[in-house]
Amino acid sequence: MHECDEGEDKASSPAKQTQQPQPAQGTQDEGCALQAGSLAHSLLDGSEPKARESPPGKRNPGPDEARFTAGIVRFYEAVLKEPVPEKMLRLIDEIAKQERRS
Amino acid sequence: MSEGQDLRDELVKWIPNLRAFALSLTQSSQHSDDLVQDTLVKALSNLDKFEMGTNLRAWLFTILRNSFYNDIRYKKYHQTAPLEEVDPRYLELRATQEKYIEFQDVLRGLGRLVPEQREAIILIAAEGLSYEEAAAVCNCPVGTVKSRLSRARQRLEGYANGANALPEPVR
């Protein structure tokens, strides 16, 4: 396993400004459904996200930790439910119009 | 319908996820929406560079993440105020009538993580990306993502078990 920690406990390292994003391989339609149970589990025991069982020797999360992790997922879900702001939709329309004109 | 229009429609579909990711990173409603708009402009300006058949969500997240770190570099979005000083009306709006206190605590907990740990937790635990996808978004090896997640877990564990343990969820 690579362990290049890049100073995780200090301030963030800026990304390369000129770097073009590299798309990850996969399907576009993986959906935004959240799997709170398995995801919370994976977060707390460090297993693969979809794995259900902890590797031997891993401790079980305490109730506070589990609640906190579930809280992160619920928080995320709540933000996902918010309507897209009109200004963002307008922005997309404006850019599309500009492209058509040019 | 044109390929460009299809991509734009697909892009709109991911805006809620971009907003959630941005809010988790910046912890500021205003900054997060600025960041998303910046991401949309960059994405739409570079749609021709997107490789069809690859993961649009990961591509968008990568743009957003790079913008975030570039902005940190210029201190534009650097959070200098503790979360307690962030206008709670924004949080209240986010949480509407439910679970306000819990969400406030979640944000406070996330605020104890460095951005790289925060994004690891959000991408994997909340967004549901695989380690490989998260590594592609973060432009780092899979092992680094795992390491960040592990460190985030350790910090949150201390937070959850410490003096600032979570309050009971608001029902």
List the helices and strands and how they pair.
The complex is a heterodimer of chains A (102) and B (171).
Chain A: H1 36-45, H2 63-81, H3 86-101
Helix pairs in contact in A: 1-2
Chain B: H1 3-13, H2 15-26, H3 29-45, H4 56-73, H5 88-95, H6 100-110, H7 115-126, H8 131-138, H9 142-161
Helix pairs in contact in B: 2-3, 2-4, 3-4, 4-8, 7-9, 8-9
Describe the structure.
Chain A has 102 residues and is mainly α. Chain A has three helices and no strands. Chain A has helices spanning 36-45, 63-81, 86-101. Residues 1-58 of chain A have low confidence and may be disordered. Chain B has a single domain, classed as Up-down Bundle (Butyryl-CoA Dehydrogenase, subunit A, domain 3), CATH 1.20.140. In chain B, 68% of the residues lie in helices and 0% in strands. Chain B has nine helices and no strands. Chain B has helices at 3-13, 15-26, 29-45, 56-73, 88-95, 100-110, 115-126, 131-138, 142-161. In chain B, helix 2 (15-26) crosses helix 3 (29-45) and helix 4 (56-73) packs across helix 8. Chain B is globular, with a radius of gyration of 17 Å. The chains are: A mainly alpha (102), B mainly alpha (171).
| Average of per-residue pLDDT values of chain B | 80
Low-confidence stretches of chain A: 1-58
N→C terminal distance of chain B: 46 Å
Provide the helix percentage of chain B: 55-70%
Integer-rounded radius of gyration of chain A: 20 Å
Task: Characterize the overall form of chain A.
Answer: rod-shaped
Count of distinct strands of chain B: 0
Following the backbone from N to C, one meets helices and strands of chain B in this order, namely HHHHHHHHH
Total tally of structural domains of chain B: 1
Shape of chain B: globular
- Helix percentage range of chain A: 40-55%
Write down the CATH class of chain B.
Mainly Alpha
Number of strands of chain A: 0
Under the CATH scheme, the architecture of chain B is Up-down Bundle
> For the record, what is the CATH homologous superfamily label of chain B?
PhyR, sigma-like (SL) domain
Label the structural class of chain B: mainly alpha
Largest sheet of chain A: none
Number of helices of chain B: 9
